[in-house]
Amino acid sequence: MTLTVTSTEPVDDRPLGPALRRGWARRCPNCGTGRMMTGYLKVADACPDCGEDLHHHRADDGPAYLTILVVGKSIMALYLAVFLAFRPEPWVMITLCWTLALVMALWLLPRFKGALVALQWSRRMHGFGGED
Fold first, then answer.
1. pLDDT, tens digit, 9 for 90 and up, residues 113-131
2. 112 near 62, Cβ under 8 Å?
């Protein structure tokens, strides 16, 4: 009778921190040089530099939820602070806050998507582990 012991230690050859930083920069989480996105939000099927498959990602609505959360909380805090400090006209508040919210959302959305794809790659989720 032979006893086989398999290690349950996680393999951490894909550290989370560097992968998230690369994803936030919209770069390949593997090499950090290739562009992850082929458009504003379209993730490339593979990295153009190292060839890492990226088509496995399942970002779905996660980046949108994170963007709404961050932008909504930030803008409402700013709205309250500006209103209490300066009491501007309503049209000034609307113009200021809507413009800032739109700019923040457009800037954050692809970065959250890149970071979420990098998180999935780092944790070997949804086929990023090598097995299909």
1. 999 999 999 999 988 886 5
2. yes
**DSSP state letter for 7:** -
- Report yes or no: 97 and 79 within 8 Å, Cβ to Cβ: yes
Phi and psi angles of residue 61, each rounded to the nearest 5 degrees, phi first: -95, 0
d(CA 98, CA 33): 34
> pLDDT tens digits for 55-71?
989 999 999 999 999 99
Handedness of CA 110, 112, 115, 117 (dihedral sign): negative
Alpha helices in the chain (DSSP H): 16-24, 62-86, 90-122
Residue with the bigger pLDDT between 6 and 17: it is 17
Q: Which two tokens stand for residue 89?
A: 């006209």
